[in-house]
Design brief:
The structure holds two protein chains of two kinds.
Chain A lengths: L2 E10 L8 E7 L3 H9 L7 E7 L6 E5 L2 E5 L1 H4 L2 E10 L1
Antiparallel strand pairs in A: 1-6, 2-3, 2-6, 3-4, 4-5
Chain B lengths: L23 E5 L6 H9 L3 E4 L8 E7 L5 E6 L11 H10 L11 E7 L3 H12 L5 E6 L1 H6 L6 H8 L3 E3 L9 H7 L17 H14 L9 H10 L4 H42 L4 H18 L2 H17 L1 H15 L7 H6 L4 H7 L6 H10 L8 H12 L4 E3 L3 E2 H25 L11 E4 L7 H35 L14 H13 L6 H9 L6 H12 L8 H8 L2 H13 L4 H11 L3 H27 L1
Parallel strand pairs in B: 1-4, 1-5, 5-6, 6-7
Antiparallel strand pairs in B: 2-3, 3-4, 8-9
Classes of the chains: A mainly beta, B alpha/beta.
């Protein structure tokens, strides 16, 4: 398998499709919430993968730093990522 | 693993006064680090649950011995990510560690449990705990998984970085835990790490953790693919909700199809032994007290122990395996519709076992209004104390017929219906509260998914033992007390040295006094007495009815179910079920609500609201059922 990473620019974490990756850029959230997320591993610069979700796509599970964290859309829509598309050839 | 795996702390140059041995040691660690498993392994059965329960919020006290045989107190603190007072869990942990928790002495040592498979992230907590300056042993847990998944850590180098002794252990297999007894028998000094990061800045903290991990040649293990595969199934668009529904139905069916025969067997055993004990006693007041009063009364509640334990077993398996967190993700959408945080799902699900630990588990909800709303609706969830009442009435009035094969019958359906009824009332109440007095902005839903694990027999066994103790304690105190009181009330006032006919007894006078209030619900005075006594605890009504019918010559020869059919109309039975679904009949719950909300206001509101709802609904149910 050859992975082809292609930078597609900024997006909200909530907009990543299932299986899509992104590099975390910024947490546009209240300091308390942002701090908690950082304790869980959501630190600018790390890679986040959008995984499975509850019915209707919300909340969604994200893989970050070796663990899985479920976030509702109201949080994940305020996390800015640099989306990467992964095409498998 | 040999003792040499403890990496000692580097020597300290400063002159510190020699310490005496440890008195109190706190067990600290992030959620899912295996803290509770380790605590159980260290203290075994010599532990007690102290004031703040709930699975994650519970605070256990236990004892371990050092190599000289001296006892050292061990405090299991709630799982925390940091020491900033973000949630009440963290406030509790911080207060204990600073010696500001009333009734607990300041710990003079800390066992810090970190998951070695997620070391870097967990080191962020280490920075904060080590910064407190209490002698600390850092335990890198899940050593077996680290090895299996091809990870690596140099403990000596890590000890040097952290300035504390470090040991690689596995709480599940017991590997390496002799390091702990070596530590507690030592005179370890306060840590002196090479450099600590700026603790307030999570990003700097994480960078520090990465560098420390790097200096200790940490190699992250490769996480197993099956976690993702299982998520793919349990959170599948189609299968996820189906599996969720099957699991919920399976829980109820297990309790019925497995619990019922066990309860029946226990009942038969109690009947036989009761007769034998009765034969040994001389006929008269004493035999009447022991057999008709105590034996029948407490026995009728004891027989439900198997079902209650099954419920706790099933919830324990779901929780320990990691499925419960996925179920919370599936249920979250529904929860948010009634204005509740998805985190409320776990306390509410544990309220199906018991509202008391559930209300304590709401401490993980950061938003105060959300938390109070969750506390107020938790007692509508069908707790295990309602289970015996429902079982008794359903079994007495509803013949069991298979519906979906042998798997799901009419009785299980009726039971499920009652569970749904309680749930709907909880949803309805939450909606009212969240759109009026407890209106607030949504608090964020952020939930770490624990990895899937096989539940261990040890941890399940300890859980069940805990619950059996609590249940038997209640049977031995509250329920025993009520049955003796009832027996006295049925035996007096005496006529010519003989106990009165039941309708002339003191209890009948009491029952008749409240009869006008409950007559509209289709209840007679005997049920009225049952309702009065069940305000102590729900299941007491069974003991009460057992005693009342046992003393009454008309129903003396009948078993409890036959006696119920003899005394109640089917419509009144329906009304009684509905009343129990909604009424707040539990002193322990009221007491815990008072403690958690710091005052009598919310418990008073809750009691009044639930009683009114129960009365009105039972009234409606009685009249509708009588028409059918």
């Amino acid at each position: 398998m050859i992975f082809n990473f292609e930078n597609t620019g900024m997006a909200a974490l909530a907009d990543l499709r299932e299986g899509q990756r992104g590099i975390l850029e910024e947490l546009d959230l209240a300091p308390r919430v942002a701090e908690h997320l950082m304790n869980l591993g959501f630190i600018p610069g790390v890679e986040v993968v959008a995984a499975r979700s509850g019915p209707g796509g919300d909340p969604r599970v994200y893989r970050v730093d070796g663990i899985e964290v479920a976030l509702r859309r109201d949080v994940s829509s305020r996390i800015v990522v640099r989306a990467l598309t992964r095409s498998v050839q | 693993m040999p003792l040499s795996t403890i990496a000692p702390a580097p020597p300290i140059s400063e002159n510190q006064p020699p310490k005496k041995g440890f008195q109190t040691i706190a067990v600290v660690g992030p959620p899912n680090s295996g803290k509770t498993t380790l605590f159980n392994r260290l203290t075994g059965l010599r532990q007690k649950v102290a004031n703040f329960p709930g699975v994650t919020v519970e605070h256990h006290l236990g004892f371990i011995r050092d190599t000289a045989g001296r006892e050292i107190e061990l405090i299991d603190l709630p799982g925390i990510y940091s020491l900033s007072p973000r949630s009440e869990d963290e406030v509790v942990a911080l207060n204990v560690l600073n010696g500001q928790m009333p009734g607990l002495s300041k710990p003079d040592g800390v066992l810090l449990i970190l998951d070695s498979t997620h070391l870097e992230r967990h080191l962020m907590l280490a920075a904060r705990v080590i910064g407190l300056g209490i002698p600390t042993l850092v335990l890198l847990n899940m050593a077996d998984e680290l090895k299996k998944q091809n990870g690596h850590i140099d403990v000596l180098a890590l000890a040097k970085q952290l300035g504390t002794p470090v040991a690689l252990v596995s709480a599940t297999t017991g590997e390496g835990i002799e390091a702990i007894s070596a530590f507690v028998s030592s005179h370890t000094e306060a840590p002196s790490p090479l450099a600590l990061p700026v603790l307030q800045d999570a990003k700097k903290c994480r960078e520090w953790a990465y560098q420390v991990g790097h200096a200790a040649s940490y190699r992250k293990p490769v996480s197993p693919v099956w976690t993702q595969r299982l998520d793919g199934l349990f959170l599948n668009r189609l299968w996820g909700p189906i599996i969720f529904a099957v699991v919920v139905m399976g829980v109820f069916q297990t309790i019925f199809s497995l619990g019922q025969p066990l309860s029946n067997a226990l009942q038969a055993l109690l009947d036989v032994t009761g007769k034998q004990v009765g034969g040994l006693l001389p006929a008269g007041l004493l035999r009447s007290l022991i057999i008709d009063g105590i034996w029948k009364g407490t026995g009728s509640v004891l027989v439900f122990l198997p079902q209650i334990l099954l419920l706790f077993l099933v919830i324990g398996v779901l929780e320990d395996s990691g499925y419960l967190a996925r179920a919370a993700v599936i249920a979250d959408k529904t929860m948010s519709r009634v204005g509740l945080n998805g985190k409320a799902f776990i306390p509410l699900l544990s309220a199906y076992a018991c509202a008391v630990p559930a209300i304590m588990a709401t401490r993980t909800i950061e938003n105060k209004r959300d938390r109070i709303a969750t506390i107020l609706i938790a007692p509508f969830m069908t707790c295990s104390a309602r289970l015996p009442v429902y079982t008794m009435i359903i079994a007495a009035f509803l013949p069991n017929r298979p519906l979906l094969g042998a798997f799901f019958g009419t009785r299980a359906l009726a039971m499920l219906g009652l569970y749904v009824l309680g749930f709907l009332m909880a949803v309805f109440t939450a909606r009212i509260l969240k759109s009026s007095v407890l209106k607030s902005k949504d608090s964020p839903f952020i939930m770490e998914m624990p990895p899937y694990r096989w539940p261990t027999l040890r941890s399940l066994g300890l859980r069940l033992l805990d619950r059996s103790k609590a249940f038997l304690y209640r049977a031995g105190t509250v329920i025993l007390g009520v049955t003796i009181l009832l027996w006295l009330l049925t035996t007096f006032p005496m006529h010519n040295g003989q106990p009165p006919a039941i309708q002339d007894s003191a209890v009948a006078t009491m029952g008749h006094a409240i009869e006008p209030v409950i007559r509209p619900l289709g209840f007679d005075w005997k049920v009225g007495v049952g309702l009065l006594t069940s305000f102590a605890a729900r299941e007491v009504i069974i003991a009460t009815m057992g005693t009342l019918y046992g003393v009454d010559p008309e129903s003396h020869a009948l078993d409890l179910q036959a006696a119920l059919r003899h005394e109640l109309t089917p419509a009144a039975a329906v009304a009684l079920l509905v009343f129990f679904a909604f009424a707040m009949q539990c002193m322990s719950t009221l007491a815990v609500v008072r403690r958690e909300t710091y005052g009598w206001k919310w418990p008073a509101v809750q009691f009044a609201y639930m009683t009114v709802v129960a009365y009105v609904s039972a009234f409606a149910a009685y009249h509708i059922a009588a028409l059918l």
